[in-house]
Write a structure and sequence with these properties.
Number of helices: 4
CATH superfamily: Aminohydrolase, N-terminal nucleophile (Ntn) domain
Largest sheet: 5 strands, antiparallel
CATH architecture: 4-Layer Sandwich
Distance between the termini: 35 Å
Order of helices and strands: EEEEEEEHHEEEEHHEE
Structural class: alpha+beta
CATH class: Alpha Beta
Helix content: 25-40%
CATH topology: Glutamine Phosphoribosylpyrophosphate, subunit 1, domain 1
């Protein structure tokens, strides 16, 4: 049997005082081969909810597109926006439906609703775990050390952004499958702002 190549990535989610930051680097690598340096791994689901993934890009894109369609249908039917918890459960159901041929993606869902900012981590089979911060992907072991050392409740946006960038830089420096810039998604009750940082 030949060698199995799994895609690498570093993806981070973090709750701060007014919202949630989701971040992922841009590199798509299988084993030691870099396929692309411009892959987007952060996805807007609806105006108050986003997702960031590590794993197979096609599976991430398929999952995010399907979740967006269902979340928008929910908003049309119920006449209010979907809660972050409900969006997480929706993604969990989609992942569990595909459990026999699983979508190879670790997913972080974050957003802001009437209960404030919240963050959920999902595995490929759809388990849902709520937390204040999370990292997934091949660089997660490096990034989580930085996040745990610097995280505290009530971080400002600037403090949270600096912490996420510091953790991402550390992971990109030590994980060969991560690199080529950072996509940041900042979610507040006013909506979603996306940024790109050209950091190698």
């Amino acid at each position: 049997m030949g060698e199995v190549y799994l895609p690498g990535a570093t993806t981070i989610g973090l709750v701060y005082n007014d919202g949630v930051i989701l971040a992922s680097e841009k590199r798509l690598a299988y084993g030691s081969f870099v396929l692309s340096k411009a892959v987007k791994k952060t996805f807007k689901i609806v105006d108050n909810v986003g997702a960031a993934c590590a794993g197979l890009v096609s599976d991430m894109q398929s999952l995010a597109n399907e979740a967006t369609a269902y979340a928008k249908l929910y908003e049309l039917e119920v006449k209010r926006r979907i809660s972050v918890r409900s969006a997480s459960k929706l993604l969990s159901t989609l992942l569990f439906e595909n459990r026999l041929i699983p979508l190879l993606t670790q997913t972080i869902v974050g957003g802001v609703d009437e209960n404030g900012p919240s963050l959920y981590v999902l595995d490929p089979l759809g388990s849902v775990i709520q937390d204040d911060y999370a990292t997934v992907g091949s660089g997660s072991e490096i990034a989580i050390g930085i996040i745990e050392a610097g995280y505290k409740k009530g971080l400002s946006l600037q403090e949270a952004e600096e912490l996420v960038i510091k953790a991402m830089k550390a992971a990109m420096a030590r994980d060969a499958a991560s690199g080529d810039g950072i996509d940041l998604m900042i979610i507040t009750d006013k909506g979603i702002e996306e940024k790109y940082l050209a950091i190698k």
